[in-house]
Amino acid sequence: MVPPARLLLVLQWLLFSTASALNDEFSWHKIAPSEDLVWHECYSGQQCARLKVPLDYANPDGASAAIAMRRIHSVVPHHSPEYRGPILVNPGGPGASGVDLIQQFGDNISAVVGPEFDIVGFDPRGISRSTPRASFFENRAEQNLFWSSPGNSMAVSSSENALARKWAQGMLAGRLAAERDDGTLHFINSDYTARDMLRIMQAHGRDKIQYWGFSYGSVLGATFAAMFPDKVGRLVIDGVMDSENYYASEWSKNLIDTEKVWTAFLNGCVAAGPTKCPIYSPTVAEIQTTVDDLYSSLRTRPIPVRTATSYAIVDYDLMRNTVFASLYKPYASFPTLARALADLSAGNATGLYRMSAAPEFKCSCDADEFSFENVNDGGHAVRCNDGKRISASFEDVEKHYENLLANSSWADVWMGPRLRCMTWPEFPQTNFQSPFVANTSFPLLVVGNTADPVTPLWGAKKMSQGFAGSVLLTQDSIGHCSLAAPSLCTQKHIRKYFRDGELPEAGTVCSTDGGPFDTLLEGEEEEEREAQAVLGGSSAEDRTLLEAVRALSRAWDVPLGF
Asked: How far apart are alpha carbons 159 and 166 in whole angstroms?
């Protein structure tokens, strides 16, 4: 699930990666879409393909779409009896790029599930390198100006008219989408993406899917399982959203456990002490007071920042959104956030700015250079096409915000995505939206953290109840999705599920290997000592697995999320 507000712009780059950087190595224009799955060498030892699928499954002989894919090839040959086929992965969003996920972290994911599988990341229809790509703007400059405008980055709590500004900005987004629709917008939805996933597996010569979906990817996985229950081979949904709440366009159950993650930062800082948590105070209350004072100070007096390559004004909105984003990846961000907040209390806002700074926007005279970059438009197209139409009344928006605020103090950074669907084009709502009840051909594995900031464990429990035989695996950790924290226990269960079809016992709870404040940027030698202390005399396979999950948990730019 992609973080809202300013972070939709920032994490367009950090979480979704940058297609222009990838195009320096490889051009997707070289691959002609085909109905047969034809793989081409791309980047560094990986393979890419574009699969031709119907744009409209109700009219399969009409226009076509092209689904971009990238894979890590299995270590074992495909003709070997040990080969276990492809696993599709979706990093969430909606709008995150599976191609980027494989480019950055495919080797780590392969190390988790094992060398017998191909790991296949795909860009869902409308997203990034899959065509047609959703876009509401005439050019990249207009697009960048819109998404970087203050109305998009503003936390609702920042001023008396902030909610009204976000409402107005949302009204514009829907109208622009309607005006710029070339006739393909209606076909960008999760229903058709699930059908595309089936086509991908069939093109691999497989009858049943193997899939690992994170965050919104859990909605996509649950949608596939409900639509095609007899086509499930192995299906993991991780960081699980209440799919019914998502399709109802409510987005009202996401923040149930958000405060737990922030409290973990405060408690962790006290326990870590001043050497590992620079904003340390002896009590949680004192640290919270320091943070509240920083919010108040930036509200009344923002700080200008100039670095060697960029500049910005660090204000209340930037701090609020940056702190919220850190809750997604505590092992990657909490030490850095503690340092940035300590520096800010001393008048230096550079660290906080660097946590949220997006690369400089660059124009190009080459029309093709950015034609496959990931933009915010695609995620909004999926979200708005999937969900029920919502009221554009400002009074109804106020009521929705008040209801969110009653459940979480973080409601002020959660309003943006929903508001952009208010004036969405009135397409017929024929796409699948429910029910999420099925007896699948193989039971699902449902994975949830005890304190996830945007997909609370409650959602995993609810969704598991609808799929017969599914098992909920609980990871006792903070952060978004299982990969937010290193847990050898969790990932060994996921590996056994994919490799052997072995589900954990009902009620299994996995602990983590270390905490987010265990190190404070103290170098790889200390991390290696920690890993050895955790593993002791464990096998080489376990050591490789822990190394992979530690790398995933401590990388800020793993593209998993709303």
From this structure: 11
User: What CA–CA distance (Å, rounded) separates 558 from 513?
Assistant: 19
The answer to whether the beta carbons of residues 539 and 312 sit under 8 Å apart is no
Q: What are phi and psi of 365, to 5 degrees?
A: -85, -10
Does the predicted TM-score (pTM) go above 0.90? yes
Say if residues 221 and 237 touch (Cβ distance below 8 Å). Answer: yes
Q: Where are the domains of the chain?
A: 6-133+189-250+436-516+542-553
Alpha-carbon distance of 544 to 506, in angstroms, equals 27
Closest CA to 418 of 176, 163, 191, 91: 163
Tell me the torsion sign for CA atoms 36, 37, 39, 43.
Answer: positive
Alpha-carbon gap, residue 141 to 467, rounded angstroms: 45
Q: Which pLDDT does position 242 carry in this prediction?
A: 97
Is 286 strand, coil or helix?
A: helix
Name residue 481's amino acid.
C
The identity of residue 144, as a single letter, is N
Interval 21-59: pLDDT, tens? 444 467 898 899 999 999 999 987 889 999 999 999 999
The tokens for 281 are: 């105070």
Q: Between 3.90.1150.10, 3.40.50.1820, 3.30.450.70, 3.40.50.150, what CATH number should domain 6-133+189-250+436-516+542-553 receive?
A: 3.40.50.1820
CA angle at residue 218 from 185 to 370, to 5 degrees? 45
For the chain, the distance separating the N- and C-terminal CA atoms, rounded to the nearest angstrom, is: 1
Phi-psi region of 31 (alpha: psi -120 to 50; beta: other; left: phi over 0): beta
Q: Which helix (H) or strand (E) holds 449?
A: strand 445-451
Calculate the CA 213 to chain-centre distance: 10
Question: For residue 551, which amino acid is it?
Answer: A
* Residue at token pair 């949302």: 170
Tokens at 324, concatenated: 């919220």
- Find all residues with CB under 8 Å of 186, minimum gap 6, and list them: 385, 425, 427
Q: Confidence band (pLDDT; 50, 70, 90) for 13? A: very low
- Yes or no: say if 433 and 386 are a contact pair by the CB < 8 Å rule: yes
Q: Is the peptide bond before 435 cis (omega within 30 degrees of 0)?
A: yes
